[in-house]
Write a structure and sequence with these properties.
single chain, mainly alpha, about 5% strand, WH_DNA-bd_sf, MarR family transcriptional regulator, DNA-binding transcription factor activity
Length: about 120
């Protein structure tokens, strides 16, 4: 996936951030960090890179609190859409490698793992 994303000028953490923001615009740095399993400090670096590339926007200041909501730009959405095809093709290849009679159990196990991390 790293190689495929490099062709779109993205890293895996950047792609994950764009994916989450497409589904949930307006998240803060801390919320994005939790959603993508990186530290707040690492997410801050990711966000700065994406903002410098004009793939997302964040206000310089907010009226209350410290959390600055983040949103995709049109270019960010375009880049995400272009990269998704490559990522989804990789996911499809991975899924094809699992025998049909074991896929449901694997997906259930992965769901359990995710739930255990968010409890």
């Amino acid at each position: 996936m790293d190689h495929a994303l490099r062709e779109h000028g993205l890293t895996v953490p950047q792609y994950a951030c764009l994916e989450v923001l497409a589904a949930r615009p307006g998240l803060s740095n801390a919320e994005l960090a939790r959603a993508t399993f990186v530290t707040r400090q690492s997410m801050n670096v990711v966000l700065r890179g994406l903002q410098d590339a004009k793939l997302l926007t964040r206000p310089a200041t907010v009226e209350t609190g410290r959390a600055r909501p983040t949103s995709l730009t049109d270019e960010g959405r375009r880049r995400l859409n272009a990269a998704q095809g490559a990522v989804y093709a990789i996911e499809a290849r991975m899924i094809e490698a699992i025998p049909d009679d074991r896929l449901t159990a694997l997906l259930e196990d992965l769901d359990r793992i995710v739930r255990s991390l968010t409890d």
